[in-house]
Amino acid sequence: MLIHGVYKSLFTPIVILLLSGSLFLLGIYPDISTILGGVALFLIGMEYMEGGFKAFSGGLLERVLEKFTNNTLKAIGTGFFTTALVQSSSLISIIIISFLSAELISLTSAVGVVFGSNIGTTTTAWLVSVFGLKIKISVYAMPMIITGIFIPMFLKESNWRGIASILIGLGIIFLGIGYMKEGFETLKEGINLAQYAMAGYAGIFVYVLVGAAATVVIQSSSATMAIIITALATGQIDYANALALTIGANLGTTVTAILAALKSNENGKRLAVAHFIFNITTGVVAIVFIYQLAELVDYLATIVGIGAKDYTLKLALFHTIFNVIGVLLVSPFITILVKFLNTLFIPKGSNKGKPKYLDDAVLPLPSTALSAIMMETKHLYENAFDIITRGLNLKKKNILSSMDLDDAVKDLYSSSSIDIDDFYNYWIKGLYGEIIDFSTKAQANMPPEYIEELYKLKLANRDIVEAIKGTKHLQKNLLKYTSSRNEYIKEQYNDIRKGLAELLRSINTIATTDEEDVIMLLLSKAKIHAERYDIITNGTLDRLIRKGLITNQMATSLMNDSDYAHSISKNLIAMAETLFIDIGSDLKKLHEDMGISDEEAKSIVHKKDRL
Amino acid sequence: MGIKKFIKSVQSTLGLEDYKNEGKKKSLKDLLKKLTSRKKSITALLKTPLDKKEENRLREELEIISLQIKKGKKILYKLYAKK
Question: Does the reported pTM lie above 0.80?
């Protein structure tokens, strides 16, 4: 679990190390060389399978994890099933961390998924024991790999490429297991590792340490389990020591989880702590009660029909049982655990201008990466909202309340101007840069339909930044003329403030409501109201000049600033259309077809002006 | 390619060939229902005595909603015509 970050950076060196070791030992110890080659193949196969599932699921996995985790029991069940299905707890963990960051699931649910995933990961041991050893699976390896290679030549869709990768991955895993088994069998003829078997608690501690160390080195508990099971099947280790090695493999993953957490955001760190607490508790209980657990396994084995001498299956059963017991032991305290986790890794100082949702670990998952960018863009808008309201000399709380807008405009935020550049530099610039950088990286893994959505999100980000720049230009005269003694120019500038305040309030409603008709009505209204800034067409400017109500200088300023207000409105409306209507919803398409077009908005305004 | 044919035959057996359009039709019908009900309530409100500001707001909303309903019905007819 949670090993993704570290695992990804160490994967290539580990495989190279294993292959180099395999080559180096080829002449001296061919059997050990075969085992090392088998482990390397197993790891490569796992990598292929994970990549295949990412491409194949097309967001389905993410949707399942989002929908079926609303209570602890469901979260545990979903964690178990998804991990058992994709055979990769690290893939599940990166999705869960990203969901947690995007606030799509609660920390309690995320912890539940991690617990379930721990049980799910034990299915690898079952698969290796049942299929890897009972059947000569290496026979199936080549047809699977060849089919996997041929599929993308004829079927280009990403789903098929995903299936191809899964087949290639499975084939390579089968080959790896075959080599490991063969290596241990020939090794037995030379050296018998079983002679190092140790009885009693001393043996347990030694083998727990060996299992943990092996997992830390290989960075994969599944690969360690495959080695343990094949070694056990060939009689190279005895059953009691294999049990201790299994506990050690479980404990070893916590080290990699901690290493991974160092690179992760605070949510990843909290989840890593939960995982650490779970594995340590489970490990300690398993060590203390190892003999009782072994008896329980013997008892259950007879019930489910596992033979007394079928040690590999009994080991798989032991692996599952002690993880289930761990879940049963820790789950009742999940609320306390989450309370404790929430007190950890609280960011110091202001984080307003730093990304909250972007995590490089989700880059390979198009749908999750898109959600992260969407959430971060909303975060950027929240910051922009604060800057724009201040720039317009309005109070945020008044915009968010139902206060009459005429009164809201009178209630000034400050009597002096605020430095928008300062706010832009602290709250926007860095965050905007991070979003664009992350989007560019995410794009590399995205199919065309996602790239289109990503492009819209990039435009929404640009719209937000442009709206702030527009506010900055507007601010100078806004402050000057709203305190002017000329009532006419004052009224015009307050009208601009009121119009933008209304737009910000409408966007806030759009962002928080589920009512499609309200969303469509407010967006259409906003488009119509944006036309009020066309003061040349609607005759406002002519009237003010003709009657000598404002000076020429005031007229020029008003004309330019109305243009800025018009651009700010257009930018914010375009942003809201992208950001606050669900990408996949029917409303998105319906709004495009049924919403008021710019021409219709102009025609409605002109009709009103004529009346 | 065989799989595509198979999926198509399953879709036709289950009557799911037009499921995307069916989903859109349902969403559109729901939206039209909401818009019509809003139109009715605005029309009723406009018959009561109101201040000028409120009346203008409601008239504007009524105009927008009427236009949206008109467009929505047009799309719905097209969807039925497709079938």
Answer: no
